[in-house]
Design goal:
- By secondary structure, this protein is of the alpha/beta class.
- The chain has a domain of 113 residues.
- It has 18 helices and 25 strands.
- Helix 11 packs antiparallel against helix 14, helix 13 packs across helix 14 and helix 16 packs antiparallel against helix 17.
- It is globular and about 75 Å long.
- 51% of the residues are buried.
């Protein structure tokens, strides 16, 4: 018998958590048609001996909404085994949208997610008003991987309330209109509804984005409308008021009777408590609420280097940032300039305490092929500086000079404690995620989170078995989306597949490139160890390189479907 593609002799890790086994995978068109010992031949065959064959990975937290317009390959997530990505997170989306509000929503996305609005306005077709029309437009972009989208609170409030939606309370009639619009968007294919409660998510004028302070009646009415059509609820919380925020999530979960996901950085608990979420999470789960926290499986934060704009803060450092890279490198080669930069850094924020607070979480990513994300406090920038008898700014500048401007420091602002993270990730209500790909273009690059799960938590630490790691990256995420046809390797399922050298898989060093419109810079990150990534039966990445095939689809909500 002949097949379009056969993957031969790999260790099949099917995504369910079951024990891996040796075998073949046969694919016709976009569907897995045989597993185990496959007789016959394939039009193409991939030798997977010694390697793992897994379902394609799913990323539940991205901001690829804009990038899809000019980079349909959707790098860098495609290099990390991702075959399905969820866009529309954090309440900032481009649909539904009245024609007169396009620039308004683009400016909002720029302010929150560091994606230039002129690039957004010129890079997308903007040929939609309703959410269903938006998905139709997205489909025409021919993405390399599958995309699913949520309808965002900012767009909903703007559509119904205009600019009043930023900081005014809606009337009862407006709440009903918003709920109906969310229900309509979900029935047209939105996977669910997203919102941000994080006060730091700001408009260009400094006000918090629409929906940040929305009250319970509004959030519950919307949740009920989304859940009626199998839509999920996504939230970013204001962690300074965690108890009330989690209580609101409970109300939304009860109203939606659907899946609820929220951004869950590790927060230490009170004495005797494993983490700050534990009591309310156990209570909600006991009530039958389907709620999941998404946690980046490593520390997260900015990248500081001569190619980024995250440095020290003073007039001389600001002047340095205003130069291009060549100018910056030339400037720090001058001893007098370095002396001025160091002197001003000593007084940053007006006190030594301010400087210490800023640099205490700087960690050099190393000069090897892969970044070193797990260094301890004795390897921080202040520790390195103290050992060398230098000021931290002097050490920072020395690393830039010695690397010809290529060195990068990870400025951690969350998930600092890896021992605590190890226990946190073991919770049944936590899933690894939060790569935030497509956002924070020159500030943050966490797209390799799935690769880190494999390399660190499975291979290096042994915290999770290979079968469990793959389950967390695949079927567990597909369940949240409501899809039963992806996330596992089984006959009749969609052929989203990875072939991985688990012994070698690892993230590459972050790099800054300029491949977006208007010469816009962005951080990116490749990977090693992915022999092939297959989306809907087509090989889209081979040995870490794009093949040019783009077989992704826009995956729409299935109101009457239930995930296996």
């Amino acid at each position: 018998m002949a097949y379009d593609l056969i993957i031969r002799g790999g260790l099949i890790v099917d995504g369910t958590g079951s024990e891996p086994y040796l075998g073949d995978v046969a694919i016709d068109k976009d569907t897995i048609v045989a597993l185990g010992k496959v007789e016959g031949t394939g039009t193409r065959e991939i030798d997977a001996k010694g390697h793992a064959v897994t379902p394609g990975f799913i990323d539940l937290h991205t901001h690829l909404d804009a990038q899809a317009g000019w980079d349909p390959d959707l790098t860098p997530v495609v290099w990390h085994g991702i075959t399905t990505a969820l866009i529309g997170n954090c309440g900032v989306t481009f649909a539904p949208c009245k024609p007169q509000d396009r620039e308004y929503l683009a400016n909002m996305m720029e302010s929150v997610e560091d994606i230039p609005s002129n690039v957004i306005l010129n890079g997308l077709p903007w040929d939609w008003e309703s959410y269903g029309e938006y998905l139709n437009s997205l489909e025409k972009l021919n993405p390399a991987i599958n995309l699913a989208g949520m309808v965002g609170h900012c767009a909903i409030r703007t559509y119904v309330m205009g600019e009043r939606g930023v900081d005014e309370e809606p009337t009862a009639d407006e709440i009903q209109q918003m709920a109906e619009l969310v229900g309509k968007s979900v029935s047209e294919g939105a996977i669910g509804f997203s919102s941000s409660r994080l006060v730091a998510h700001k408009m260009p004028d400094g006000r918090s984005i629409p929906g940040t302070f929305a009250k319970t009646d509004e959030m519950v009415a919307i949740a009920k409308a989304a859940g009626k059509n199998n839509g999920l609820i996504q939230n970013v919380l204001e962690y300074s008021r965690l108890d009330s925020e989690m209580a609101l999530l409970r109300e939304q979960g009860l109203a939606a009777d659907s899946r609820v996901i929220f951004t869950a950085p590790h927060i230490p608990g009170a004495p005797g408590k494993a983490n700050a979420y534990i009591d309310i999470m156990e209570s909600m789960l006991a009530e039958g609420i389907d709620i999941t926290g998404l946690a980046l499986p490593r520390s997260f934060g900015f990248l500081s280097g001569l190619k980024t704009n995250i440095m020290f803060m003073s007039p001389a450092w600001t002047a340095l940032i205003e130069l291009d890279f060549a100018g910056r490198l030339a400037a720090i080669q001058d001893a007098g300039t370095r002396a001025t930069l160091i002197d001003e850094a000593r007084e940053m924020g007006g006190s030594t305490a301010a400087l210490d607070a800023w640099v205490s979480n700087f960690y050099w990513l190393g000069d090897g092929d892969s970044p070193l994300y797990t260094k301890g406090a004795d390897e921080s920038l202040p520790a390195i500086a103290k050992a060398a008898g230098e000021h931290p700014a002097e050490t920072w500048l020395r690393y830039m000079l010695e690397s010809n401007g290529e060195a990068l420091f990870h400025v951690r602002f969350g998930n600092h404690d890896y021992a605590a993270m190890e226990e946190f990730l073991k919770n049944d209500w936590i899933l690894p995620s939060l790569g935030d790909s497509g956002a924070h273009l020159t500030q943050i690059i966490d797209a390799g989170w799935a690769t880190f799960m494999l390399s660190h938590w499975h291979r290096e630490k042994g915290t999770f078995t290979l079968a469990e790691t793959i389950r967390l990256l695949t079927s567990a995420q597909a369940r949240i989306l409501g899809f039963a046809d992806r996330g596992v390797l089984a006959v009749g399922k969609r052929a989203d597949v990875n072939v991985i050298d688990v012994d070698k898989v690892i993230e590459g060093q972050p790099t800054l490139i300029r491949d977006f419109p208007n010469d816009t810079p962005r951080l990116t990150q490749k990977a090693q160890g992915y022999l092939a990534t297959i989306c809907n039966g087509s090989v889209i990445v081979e040995n870490g390189e794009l093949t040019g095939h783009r077989a992704g689809r826009v995956l729409r909500n299935q109101p009457n479907a239930s995930a296996a």
